[in-house]
């Protein structure tokens, strides 16, 4: 007689509670039928072996996803920037550069979309998993549910080892202690091992470090070095125990998010290289990008934003200070390139590089505006917020010159706003301004010797972080599962990029995409893009006036939408809203459809965050 696996009667219990360990292959157990024969005697019975651990197909590639933090499109030399990143360049020159790739515009939303292949609001990550930056609405609750499985869960169910290194930023605050629960730690989202930090930022020398399911004491070295060493140790152990088993490695260093910290040997390499300032930086990078072919030949550099001063008009002492901020940032990025190179070289030395697909995303959003006008080291960002006048803050920050980049700064240590626009060349605006390409347009490099014959070519098809999951599934030969650990899965939203690997002219397959962060919003459709700023960038919203933030009317219906034809005007210089009102109306309607589909409304903004922060602060008191 045939008999089903004995575990099956207990599977209905999984609907309410996960009873088995995170590494148990529940799906394999549930689907396999026992095909032996049972009699009273084992002599006349026929055994039948069930393999509970599914093996990957022979020759399956390793997969490495590298996600940097707060890096603008024009920072890295791999995409025309002045900051030296030779290892990124080597990957690009031996792989593909994607020049029309997009992120969600800020940390957690990008990471949730990347790992799940779904739009960030649809997985509850419209903003962040922190109390004061979340909200009790489906699109903003900060809790990724089991029906939104990750690429790590999928690959582990198909015979891969899975490792997470660095920034996670997807665990709700109330679940981030060593008591758990660990459902939304890396271990609960498909990773066999993890080493990094759960929050959005951490000190590079004194990180809030976790390994697997507990906090640990860091060793005092720069965090990026520790991450690389741990990644190499994972790979070595894998190779020694199961040399034919493939791995998935998600490497997400804190670089180059604040705090900007790096050894002087790296920052001093750039001594004097930014003395000409951010205006000259933008012009040089723009020319480099045209020469490299990563922007259109007929592109025009946007004007400097009105609230950034011309470099030539700044006092010498401010120029001296601001140049040092950028020297440190540049050293931080080049050092990160060095550590990525160390990881890649290890794969090459162990003869694994050719069969490893590497996806390097240079930034989870554009350059950060959080350094405001003068830059930040150790004091409050906003003048007037705690009785600090504009002139007092300026005097203070000028005295902090020698501390920039060292271990003696807070987690908010960041460069001035002028460098944010400069590193975002050729785009306008910056991180979290999801209505603009400066927030969401980031470089992607794909390096896969065994799978991509073309070397050093450019791809201009529209892409989005949700596309990484289906791309990885296609190159590994893994199908999107209907069920993970007994939970029926919601559909994914991304489109595989494999169609473009061998064909630079292939029609793009990801043809519509919304962007929304803090109420700033946009929608892309077949080359057209409409967007609206929820709280426009002004001197007041950056705290430049020396006064408290003004009360801004929160009425999305009164906000002005702009319209751009990105096929002809890729960096949004010519607003066509008045010329093509019907096209704008069409796109706004599409945005509303997506808002209903993906739980975008209500728009949650910084005003809401400030109110929630007051509640949290008063509760702690």
UniProtKB/TrEMBL annotation:
Signal peptide: 1-28
Enzyme class: hydrolase
Keyword Cytoplasm: no
TM helices/strands, residue ranges: none
EC number of the protein: 3.1.6.-
Alphabetically ordered keywords of this record: Calcium, Hydrolase, Metal-binding, Signal
Domain spans labelled Sulfatase N-terminal: 61-478
Keyword Metal-binding among record annotations: yes
GO molecular function: hydrolase activity
Family membership: Belongs to the sulfatase family.
Name of the protein: Arylsulfatase
Source taxonomy: Bacteria, Pseudomonadati, Bacteroidota, Cytophagia, Cytophagales
């Amino acid at each position: 007689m045939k008999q089903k696996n004995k575990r099956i009667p207990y599977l209905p219990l999984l609907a309410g509670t996960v009873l088995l360990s995170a590494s148990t292959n529940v799906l394999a157990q549930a689907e396999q039928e026992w095909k032996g024969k049972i009699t009273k005697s084992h002599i006349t019975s026929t055994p039948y072996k069930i393999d509970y651990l599914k093996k990957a197909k022979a020759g399956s590639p390793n997969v490495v996803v590298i996600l940097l933090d707060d890096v603008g499109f024009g920072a890295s030399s791999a995409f025309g920037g002045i900051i030296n990143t030779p290892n990124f360049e080597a990957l690009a020159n031996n792989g593909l550069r994607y020049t029309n790739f997009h992120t969600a515009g800020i940390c957690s939303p990008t990471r949730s979309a990347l790992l799940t292949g779904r739009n960030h609001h649809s997985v509850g990550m419209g903003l962040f998993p922190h109390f004061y930056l979340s909200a009790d609405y489906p699109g903003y609750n900060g809790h990724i549910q089991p029906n939104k499985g990750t690429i790590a869960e999928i690959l582990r169910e198909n015979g891969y080892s899975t490792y997470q290194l660095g920034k996670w930023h997807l665990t709700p605050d109330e679940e981030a202690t060593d008591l758990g629960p660990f459902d939304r730690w890396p271990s609960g989202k498909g990773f066999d091992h993890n080493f990094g930090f759960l929050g959005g930022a951490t000190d590079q020398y004194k990180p809030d470090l976790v390994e697997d399911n507990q906090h640990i004491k860091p060793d005092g070295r720069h965090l990026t070095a520790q991450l690389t060493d741990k990644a190499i140790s994972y790979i070595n152990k894998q190779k020694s125990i199961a040399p034919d088993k493939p791995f998935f490695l998600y490497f997400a260093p804190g670089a180059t998010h604040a705090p900007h910290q790096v050894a002087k040997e790296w920052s001093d390499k750039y001594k004097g290289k930014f003395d000409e300032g951010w205006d000259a930086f933008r012009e040089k990078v723009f020319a480099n990008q045209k020469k490299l072919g990563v922007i259109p030949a007929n592109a025009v550099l946007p004007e400097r934003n009105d609230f950034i001063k011309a470099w030539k008009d700044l006092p010498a002492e401010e120029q001296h200070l601001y140049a040092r901020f950028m020297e440190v940032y540049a050293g931080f990025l080049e050092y990160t390139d060095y550590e990525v190179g160390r990881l890649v070289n290890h794969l090459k030395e162990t003869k694994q590089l050719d069969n490893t697909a590497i996806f390097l995303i240079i930034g989870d959003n554009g350059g950060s505006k959080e350094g405001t006008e003068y830059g930040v080291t150790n004091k409050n960002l906003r003048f007037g917020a705690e009785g600090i006048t504009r002139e007092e803050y300026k005097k203070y920050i000028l005295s902090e010159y020698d501390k920039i980049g060292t271990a003696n700064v807070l987690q908010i240590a960041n460069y001035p706003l002028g460098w944010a626009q400069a590193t975002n060349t050729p785009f306008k605006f910056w991180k979290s301004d999801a209505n603009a390409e400066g927030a969401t347009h980031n470089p992607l490099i794909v390096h896969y010797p065994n799978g991509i014959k073309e070397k050093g070519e450019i791809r201009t098809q529209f892409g989005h972080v949700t596309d990484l999951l289906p791309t990885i599934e296609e190159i590994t030969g893994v199908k999107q599962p209907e069920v993970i650990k007994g939970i029926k899965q919601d559909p994914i939203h991304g489109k595989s990029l494999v169609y473009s690997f061998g064909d630079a002219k292939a029609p793009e397959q990801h043809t519509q995409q919304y962007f929304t962060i803090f109420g700033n919003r946009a929608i892309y459709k077949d080359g057209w893009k409409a967007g609206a700023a929820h709280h426009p960038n002004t001197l007041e919203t950056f705290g430049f006036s020396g006064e408290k933030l003004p009360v801004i009317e929160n009425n999305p219906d009164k906000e002005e939408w702009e319209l751009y034809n990105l096929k002809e005007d890729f960096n949004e210089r010519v607003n066509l809203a008045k010329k093509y009102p019907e096209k704008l109306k069409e796109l706004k309607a599409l945005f509303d459809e997506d808002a209903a589909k993906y739980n975008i409304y209500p728009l949650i903004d910084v005003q809401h965050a400030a109110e929630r922060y007051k509640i949290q602060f008063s509760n702690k008191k």
